[in-house]
Amino acid sequence: MQNRITELFKIKYPIIQGGMIWASGWKLASAVSNAGGLGVIGAGSMYPDILREHIIKCQKATNKPFAVNIPMLYPDLDKLMDIIVELNVKIVFTSAGNPKTWTSFLKEKGIIIVHVVSSLKFALKAQDAGVDAIVAEGFEAGGHNGRDETTTLTLIPSIKKHIKIPLIAAGGIATGSAMLAVMVLGADGVQVGSRFVASEEASSHQLFKQKIVEAVEGDTHLTLKELAPVRLLKNEFYNSIQNLYTKGATKEELIALLGRARAKKGMFEGNMTEGELEIGQVSALINDIKPARNIIVDMVEEFEKAKQMITLL
Questions:
Q1: Is the N or C terminus of the chain more exposed, i.e. has fewer CB atoms within 10 Å?
Q2: Shared-domain flag, residues 41 and 82
């Protein structure tokens, strides 16, 4: 299964694990990399010293390539970048910010740069900034999302027509057949988030993992668009948001309700009522919690079976 993405990252399968906050620590990243994909440490929920610890542990747990994902809206970016350079991390995914800010700095250090976008406009900006590849994420995805609500199946062919660098599809992908579908549309690989949150190695709380397994169609919703669009599992906190909306809530009232550390409270600490539970629509297709290696093996096997079925049509 060799293509531009496997060649760029020096991996066996074009499967990239999403750098989800509170789920993507060194255990998950190293397990995915050891299984032939590209593991990603999610630095969005990490202070600099915590990121350092996770990188060092990941380097000890795998001799395969892995990456670090950094949302650029977080503080201490300069410290995070210095640690990445110091510890010789080879691949960095950036998101939630201007790709021009750090691309040149990192590329001068020989680091491969991938930027996450949710629209053609920002894909072109990322390409112009000199990134090596793009993740195009449809609004089916969990967590923070694009404001245009463009679906993955629309976004991928739209961007593919206008860029020359490798393209990675994200949002709504948890199976081998979905992987094949987006690759037929022009993607060179896939980024998988929600499926890996419900893995044994994910650092997310066991109660959150079980909540994902129990989710059915319609259990997630994109909300808080006035602040930063985010897809959440419906719970008491989500209901509180909706109640404020019915009362004509102001942006300030929404910020006050959100408060601090809502995501940590839910996804990491296991408060299923008052916590923010970020997960994608594809959670309705996730029925078990299993090792990351098994997730990749299953995806690859289903991908090959789906490809054979297409040739028989």
A1: C
A2: yes
pTM, rounded to two decimals: 0.94
pLDDT digits (tens, 9 = 90+) for 152-199: 999 999 999 999 999 999 999 999 999 999 999 999 999 999 999 999
The total number of structural domains that make up the chain: 2
In a domain, 120, yes or no: yes
Question: Over the stretch 188-245, which tens digit does the pLDDT of each residue have?
Answer: 999 999 999 999 999 999 999 999 999 999 999 988 888 888 899 999 999 999 998 8
Extract long-range pairs of 124-130: CB within 8 Å, 24+ residues apart. 124/162, 124/163, 125/98, 125/99, 125/100, 126/99, 127/163, 127/164, 127/165, 129/98, 129/99, 129/100, 129/103, 130/103, 130/104
Cα angle 86-192-60, degrees, rounded to a multiple of 5 = 35
> Does residue 85 lie in a domain region?
yes
